[in-house]
Automatic annotation (TrEMBL):
This is L-aspartate dehydrogenase. The gene is nadX. Specifically catalyzes the NAD or NADP-dependent dehydrogenation of L-aspartate to iminoaspartate. Keywords: NAD, NADP, Oxidoreductase, Pyridine nucleotide biosynthesis. Its EC number is 1.4.1.21.
Amino acid sequence: MNAIAPPRRRPLRVAIAGFGAIGQALALALDRGIPGFELSVVSAREKPAAARRMEQLRNPVPVLDIAELEPQADLVVECAPAALLPSIVEPFLRAGKNAVVISAGALLQHDHLASLAAQHGAHIIVPTGALIGLDAMLAAAEGEVTSVRMITRKPVRGLLGAPYLTENNIRIEGIEAPLRVFEGTAREAARGFPANLNVAVALSLAGIGPDRTRLEIWADPTVTRNTHRIEVEADSARFAMSIENVPSDNPKTGRITALSVIACLRKMQAPLRIGT
Ligand SMILES: NC(=O)C1=CN([C@@H]2O[C@H](COP(=O)(O)OP(=O)(O)OC[C@H]3O[C@@H](n4cnc5c(N)ncnc54)[C@H](O)[C@@H]3O)[C@@H](O)[C@H]2O)C=CC1
Ligand SMILES: O=C([O-])CC(=O)C(=O)O
């Protein structure tokens, strides 16, 4: 007797909102093939430039405005400037569709998004991104966590333009030794460094929240990589981890970030899923 073949589900159509360092790398990966997904549409600020970048794909897709994405896709991957987060994900959540969010820092200013997802049976998924160890952080947070501390060191050009530096008149151009530019909570860091500290917010959401997660930021002319060290004290374990990220075309963004999004999508459809 022939075995009955399981029904073949059609691939999930992916919209990429933001066609920059992360968006382009993800588009190329989807174009090469991630099982269970197909790229259906992207959004970019400058359409002619995006159309030129689209030529790198074997199967080019339309470049539309953010407001036009939802009907064209089953899932959105947000990889745009943080301020655009609500306009990108709200239409998808309202339609009961999932959103992968990489501008994690902006979630703190828009906590209605999680309620919106719950109301419509949708999910917001935050990949580990440029960080390390969210699996251990999530597991430890099932028990008692006493402290979470993160120390970030970035080359000067990875921090230039951060509102906290401007508001506090902190000049980092031309410094010759490491300078600690911030000490505070993940919530304060997200406000002051919106394009730099998504990782601290992701860590805090996995662990003990943005008001108890402590953070130091150093502008460091001696490093070439964005470096994050995490130190956690919990009743289940003590752990310390660090990651040194090779910058992508965008000096503020580590190359591993796009790879984390690709791995996150792959895991969503995988028959065998590894990690918390
Ligand atoms: N969670 C994490 O670990 C990390 C998160 N990030 C965050 O991810 C986001 C994307 O980062 P990158 O790809 O490096 O940025 P990027 O600056 O290279 O790309 C952003 C893209 O969004 C596009 N864009 C701007 N306005 C738009 C509009 N109105 N409509 C459509 N597209 C628009 C820009 O043209 C640009 O191509 C940023 O918010 C960044 O802070 C970055 C690194 C790590
Ligand atoms: O390390 C990186 O590549 C980026 C980073 O800090 C962030 O956006 O949180």
